[in-house]
Amino acid sequence: MSYKNQIQHNRIPRHVAIIMDGNGRWAKRQGLARMFGHRQGVETVHTITEAAAALGIEYLTLYAFSTENWNRPKEEVDALMSLLVDTIAKETPTLMKNNVRLSTIGDLSRLPAAAQQKFRACMEETNSNTGLNLVIALSYSARWEIIQATKNIALAVQQGAMLVEDINEELISSYMTTAQMPDPDLLIRTSGELRISNFLLWQLAYSELYFTDCLWPEFTEEEFYHAIVDYQHRERRFGKTSEQIR
User: Fold this and answer.
1) Is the pLDDT reported for residue 245 higher than 90?
2) Looking at domain 13-141+182-234, which CATH architecture does it have?
3) Any idea of the CA torsion for 232, 234, 240, 245, to the nearest 10 degrees?
4) What is the 3-state secondary structure (H, E, C) of 65-128?
5) pTM of the model as a whole
6) DSSP structure string for 148-182
7) Cys-Cys crosslink for 106: which of 11, 139, 172, 183, Cβ 3.0 to 4.6 Å?
8) What residue spans define the domains of the chain?
9) Are 95 and 102 in contact (CB under 8 A)?
């Protein structure tokens, strides 16, 4: 039986986050340049976005480019930025067709002007869509996000807009870039790496983690369904006992 047929549709995770890893290694195994891996990775994004939308997942957050990725060779970074621009222009009609709303988290000010313009145009065009919320993490890192939140909270206290005693978990969450969405129920990482890599550190506190050896360009719908089924077989206790949540 396929994993798709095993999915319990009354237990679909609201928010799935994915660390898309392995594009470069996939290309190397094919004897190709790294950019071929990134282009193939874009096709996987298309496939998984459509699968998530069809399942009724509300939020899909994809780690596309970290702040650390700016340290890669300039030629690769420039090619990635060009690929982003081309992909957004190409995929906007598909997002509209599938009722998908695009948003981003991260420091977009570091992106080239053309990339910023394309993303803003696509976000504006898809803003009224009511289906899947596709969130692209670009020029993002969790430590950067936490630092920004801390500075903004400190400024609010300094200006008298709040007291130190007002600072709690809910308030800190409201200063995160993900304030308008639920925390991820499930984090998926491809390529066999067993780490979080500075991604959504605050938000992943109680997320279920799923690691697969599959490289991102090879990550199929069936692999995605496997992760969903695995998630549905877990008991999420949030610090409570099994008896308390039953």
Assistant:
1) no
2) 3-Layer(aba) Sandwich (3.40)
3) 50
4) EEHHHHHCCHHHHHHHHHHHHHHHHHHHHHHHHCCCEEEEECCHHHCCHHHHHHHHHHHHHHCC
5) 0.95
6) HHHHHHHHHHHTTSS-GGG--HHHHHHTSTTTTSP
7) 139
8) 13-141+182-234
9) yes
